[in-house]
Amino acid sequence: MQIRTATEADWPAIWPFFRRIVEAGETYTYPRDMAEPAARRTWMLPPPGRTVVAVDDDGTVLGSAKMNPNHMGGASHIAGASFMVDPDRSGKGVGRALGAHVLEWAKGEGYRAMQFNAVVETNTGAVALWKSLGFEIVATLEEGFQHPKHGYVGLHIMYQRF
Amino acid sequence: MQIRTATEADWPAIWPFFRRIVEAGETYTYPRDMAEPAARRTWMLPPPGRTVVAVDDDGTVLGSAKMNPNHMGGASHIAGASFMVDPDRSGKGVGRALGAHVLEWAKGEGYRAMQFNAVVETNTGAVALWKSLGFEIVATLEEGFQHPKHGYVGLHIMYQRF
C-alpha cells in the first residue's frame, strides 16, 4: 500500500465509495444525497489543505483522506482531517495508514494539534482507531447525531496535541 | 433596544466594530487582517442562516449576531451562532439580548441544540454569559488559541440541548 497526493484523475475512483458511505448516513455529517460536484469540492482540497489516496500495488484506490486547517486566525495551528475507506477494502489497515500519514503531515506542516469535529459514537471502529493513534474524546455532544438505525446518538469531538 | 434581521444596509455600521474586534485577535478565530469583502460574506448570512442587529431607540447599531446550522446531514439539528457587540456599547446587556434572541430563533426553527465551536477561555465575560443562558463547557481544547497577550490558551466548546 502506498499513500500519495490525490489528483483530479483519482476522483472517479473515490466517488463510488464516498457516495456509498455518505448515502448510508451512519458516519458522516454530510447530506446523504450530496451531489457529485459538491462532494468533489468538499473532498478534493487545494492548498493549504491536501487530499491523499491509499493505493494498492496494482494502483487500486483503497481509501482517501483530506486534511486541512480546522480553524482560522488564532486557532489556525489546529488541523482537521476526514477519512474514507472503501467498504469493500476494509480490514486491511488502510484507515490506520491514512491516520498515521495525516498526523505526520500535520506535524510536518507545523500544526500543533489535530481536532476531529464529529465522530459518531456508534462508529466504534473509528473511535478505537483514533484513540490508538493518540486522540482523546474531549467531548461528546449528547444526541448530536441522528443515526438512521439507532436514532439520536452522541457525536464525539476528538483532539490530540503534538 | 430592538433586535431585527440585518440587511445589507446595516453592514457599514457593523464593519467598524467587526474589524476592531477581529483585529484585536483576542476573541475570534478569524484572520486578524480579514478583508472587508470576506468579513461581509462571513457575517451576512443568507437562509438557512440569519444575521440580526441590536439597535438602540435612535437606530444606532449596538451589536450583531449570526446564526446558522453548525453541521450538515445527521447533525444538522445542531445550530451555531456568533456574536459581536460594539466595544463602545458594551455593558448594556446587548450580548445577553442577542444570545436570548438566537436561542429563541433556533428553537423556533426546530433545532434541538446549539454548539459554540470556539470560545476563548480568557473571554471570561462571554463564558459567564453563555453559562447563564444555559450553555455548558463540554470541552476545552488545550492551547487551542494563540492569544496576542496571553500566548496559548484554551478554546472552549460550549453546548446546550433544548
Automatic annotation (TrEMBL), chains A, B:
Residues in N-acetyltransferase domain copies: 1-162
Gene3D superfamilies assigned: 3.40.630.30
Pfam families reported for this sequence: Acetyltransf_1 (PF00583)
Family annotation (PANTHER family): ACETYLTRANSFERASE, GNAT FAMILY, N-ACETYLTRANSFERASE ACA1
Name used for this protein in its record: GNAT family N-acetyltransferase
